[in-house]
């Protein structure tokens, strides 16, 4: 796929089909992502790919915890949306507004988005990205570069993704089934697979006008 096309066609897929992702594809994607830059080539990343039975067990435990209304506790703290700065808060509000309008009404949007979340997007595979607990703050930048390269490499192969907070809400479950050591921070889950033909996947998020983002001084 042409580079610009790959970047433009990547978007978050929230309902995956049952079609599995091959081990070869996962290996090739991660190998490409390893070419991402990092502070003094420190390469803080590790990837735990949950597929098959391991992923089924994770999904079942998450469903139980959600049924018991257990409070989420991801390794990275989550800031309440009212505490974000005005500009990013406005962008998030706009996103929620667009999602509701993509569907018939709030109830349908809420039902479909919750169903997707509750089933971890029906993903056939989730790549859990970790970094050492004793990392520099700079390593978070490295993890972002690595994650985006994963998502673009996946798109280049015709695979879809979504980076996900939702799948890392209960780290102890992931540690149990994926043998993730305590001295690693679970940063994010990237669900990967093939998009289901579902309305939720036809939504495309918008971006701010470039003049709000780019300041060039001559
Ligand atoms: C760190 C991170 C966590 C995210 N967590 C979720 C999530 O839990 N649920 C969800 O539906 N989308 C999640 N997203 C996807 C964003 O909503 C999405 O990237 C954004 O709206 C832009 O849309 P696009 O990815 O389709 O371009 C997350 C994205 C990032 C980068």
UniProtKB/TrEMBL annotation:
It comes from the Bacteria. The keyword Mitochondrion does not apply. Residues 7-194 form the Nitroreductase domain. Keywords: Flavoprotein, FMN, Oxidoreductase. Gene3D superfamilies: NADH Oxidase (3.40.109.10). Its cofactor is FMN. GO terms for molecular function: oxidoreductase activity. InterPro entries: Nitroreductase, Nitroreductase-like. SUPFAM superfamilies: FMN-dependent nitroreductase-like. Residues 61-82 are annotated as: Disordered. Belongs to the nitroreductase family. This is Nitroreductase. It comes from Companilactobacillus nantensis DSM 16982.
């Amino acid at each position: 796929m042409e580079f610009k096309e790959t970047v433009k066609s990547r978007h978050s897929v929230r309902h995956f089909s049952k079609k599995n992702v091959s081990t070869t594809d996962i290996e090739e994607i991660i190998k490409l992502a390893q070419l991402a830059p990092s502070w003094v080539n420190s390469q803080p990343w590790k990837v735990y790919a949950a597929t098959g039975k391991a992923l089924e067990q994770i999904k079942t435990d998450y469903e139980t915890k959600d049924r018991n209304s257990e409070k989420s506790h991801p390794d990275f703290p989550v800031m309440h949306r009212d505490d974000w700065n005005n500009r990013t808060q406005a962008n998030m509000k706009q996103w929620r507004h667009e999602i509701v309008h993509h569907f018939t009404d709030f109830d349908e949007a809420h039902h479909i988005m919750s169903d997707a979340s509750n089933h971890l997007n029906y993903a056939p595979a989730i790549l859990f990205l970790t970094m050492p607990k004793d990392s520099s703050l700079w390593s978070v930048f490295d993890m972002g570069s690595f994650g985006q390269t994963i998502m673009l490499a996946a798109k280049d192969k015709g695979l879809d993704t979504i980076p996900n907070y939702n799948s890392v809400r209960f780290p102890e479950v992931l540690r149990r089934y994926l043998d993730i050591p305590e001295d690693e921070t679970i940063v994010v889950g990237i669900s990967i697979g093939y998009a289901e033909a579902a309305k939720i996947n036809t939504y495309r998020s918008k971006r701010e006008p470039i003049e709000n983002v780019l300041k060039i001084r001559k």
